[in-house]
Design goal:
With 299 residues, the chain is mainly β. It contains one helix and 18 strands. The strands form five sheets. It has a five-stranded mixed sheet with strand order 5-6-7-11-8, with no helix packed on it.
């Protein structure tokens, strides 16, 4: 019933080549019932390929959240495995337009991404939920502004005092952050730009008589699901990323756009609906970062 009236179907998929040999090792895709599937294609024998359920997305009330955008995969910050990042929401039917379900972005720890290392059945993440993840939260900086800040809670990946780093030693299996407004959806694929993960949401009007949709672009830290350590958006348009871009004293992690996927190129995000651009920060540093005096050569 979670996906009615459409039945079920897979989202766009993401393929991962962890061995960098030009061949896909793992792939991930969600479905309309909120399941995330893990496809193991690391074997040279096609008949040995397997598929397992990896995770199930559920809102705070335990209701399944449809997935239509492709998951995004980044290396895990501990160096062990990957983070599979999942955004929920769908916009396929008329009922989806009026849905007020709160949608979510998850970062789920994939600990079995190495070729030749057998993954358990079932996977440990299948039974994990919000209580097993570090939560982050959005807050609107000024009511009605469409600009949002984000917490930056530290994720404790392993239990205190553990050294073995086994599955049973894991404290948090990922992170979770709800989108700030009811009915807001992630239906476009996410983009990693520099150190930040960018996602575009879409939202229908609260007024049933109003036409059109709006969107928001968020730039978050993929390692913990919180705000980045650097200023993401040039909010005042002066060409710099600094404290002058804060709103009501808070760093802007999400800002309003037109309804559509935002394209990022050359430190700019292009809004197709507004026919406008805004500067965005990749958070990377180039060139010489420090100086060291060269001692004189011995005579």
């Amino acid at each position: 019933t979670a996906s009615l009236p459409l039945g079920n179907g897979l989202s766009r998929a993401t393929a991962v080549d962890n061995t960098r040999d030009g061949k896909v090792d793992l792939a991930y895709a969600g479905d309309l019932a909120g399941n995330v599937w893990r496809f193991d294609m690391s074997s040279g024998d096609v008949s040995a390929w397997t598929v397992q359920k990896f995770f199930t997305a559920k809102d705070a009330d335990g209701k399944r959240q449809a997935i239509t955008a492709a998951p995004y995969v980044v290396p895990h910050p501990t160096g062990k495995g990957d983070l599979v990042i999942i955004g929920t929401g769908r916009l396929l039917t008329a009922s989806d337009k009026s849905s007020t379900q709160r949608q979510t972005v998850y970062g789920v720890w994939e600990r079995y991404n190495e070729k030749g290392v057998a993954a358990p059945t079932p996977l440990p993440t299948v039974a994990k939920g919000r209580a097993d993840m570090q939560s982050q939260s959005f807050a609107e900086l000024d009511t009605g502004s469409g600009n949002f800040s984000l917490t930056n809670n530290t994720v404790q990946w392993y239990k205190t005092g553990t050294t073995a780093k086994r599955d049973i030693d894991v404290e948090k299996w990922g992170w979770v952050v709800d989108l700030p407004r009811n009915g807001e959806k992630v239906v476009y694929d996410m983009t990693l730009y520099g150190r930040g993960l960018f996602l575009s949401s879409v939202r229908t009007s609260d007024d049933p008589c109003a036409a059109g949709m709006s969107g928001t672009i968020y730039g978050i830290d993929p390692n913990g699901g919180g705000r980045t350590e650097y200023v993401v958006f040039d909010m005042n348009g002066d060409g710099f990323f600094n404290s002058a871009d804060a709103m009501v004293g808070g760093q802007v992690t999400g800002t309003g756009t037109g309804a559509g996927r935002q394209t990022i190129r050359g430190e700019r995000v292009f809004d197709p609906e507004a026919n406008a651009e805004r500067r965005v920060n990749h958070g990377l540093q180039f060139g010489r970062q420090s100086w060291r005096k060269q001692p004189p050569n011995p005579s």
